[in-house]
Specification:
- By secondary structure, this protein is α/β, with parallel strands linked by helices.
- α5 runs parallel beside α6.
- The protein starts with a helix and ends with a helix.
- The structure holds zinc ion.
- The site of zinc ion has 5 residues, from loops.
Amino acid sequence: MRRCLACLLGLAAVVSVQPQQTVKYGVKVQPGPMDAVLLKDYRPESSLVVPETRVEKARFPVIDVHTHTFMNEIRTAADVDQWVRVMDEVGVEKSIVLTGAIGEEFARQVELYLKRYPHRFQLWCSIVTRDIEAPDYPERVVRELERCYRMGARGVGELTDKGFGLQEETRPPGKRLHLDDPRLDPLWRKCAELKLPVNLHVADHPSCWRPLGPTQERTPDFQHFNVYGKDGLSYEELLARRDRLLARHPQTTFILCHLSNQGNDLASLARALDRFPNLFVDISARDYELGRQPRFARRFLENYSDRVLFGTDMGRETHMYRMWWRLLETPDEYMPGRIWWRYYGLELSGETLEKLYRGNALRILNWN
Ligand SMILES: [Zn+2]
């Protein structure tokens, strides 16, 4: 042991006299101004000159199955009018608003959207998550669902479990309401009975369960989503609970948003789709997963063209929608993207695009 320590000390002495030259990619690394650039500020500008296609309007009238009032900062009737103008400009026929609301707030949003634009919007409601220990909870959650349905709700969601249950981190482990909790079984049965599809956000991008540090995959701008070392469920456990829920309620239609957070591994998502006929996914906010693997993603979207729906979840600006059209419809390369990743166009076939943009939504959503 003592000898080994001497070895180490000796080595340290050599290093201090003659620092080792780092060679990366065959080039000797030398100090310079780039050493002072913080990771979060790094935004290289591309010199690549390649064809750029502008797609003003989507090729088919689009049904966007994943939008939010809070995210789109819609407060007034004028805000809704403005959004409808944007939808017209880019070719979105209908937007599904996942209100996150029940009770009074849901009624307010019904008034805001459906009174003037009954054919441009569809509203989905949330669920009761208060007093879940009370014996009447399963009955209460169904009663409020029926009330929202009568007011116009045509789906449920987005309901989110990133490992901490439906109430996020406000409750300790063991006291949390996860999606496969038996207390929610009557709710899922009622959804099937009323033909209300359910939008679920299960887990999150898998990089959230990896440490923040030099090997972290996504941008530092997303570090607040990280759950590494927290007391929630693991990514794998969350997907296992999703599977139990899907198996237990085969009559209920579940749309797992963000490619069920398996966009990084489309082969495993394909296996889940094969197993559960009541499972559908939306592609909202996973532009970066599709755009970084355009050939595999296109094959996936074409093979599962009856199971995937279009959604955005990303605001309501014209350039946001047009980024999607360019990604899905064109063969453009190295287009600017998020998470630092550049995208490659998928050039989807007309048949797949039509199903993704509207056909599947027309088939599985509730339009009564
Ligand atoms: Zn969302």
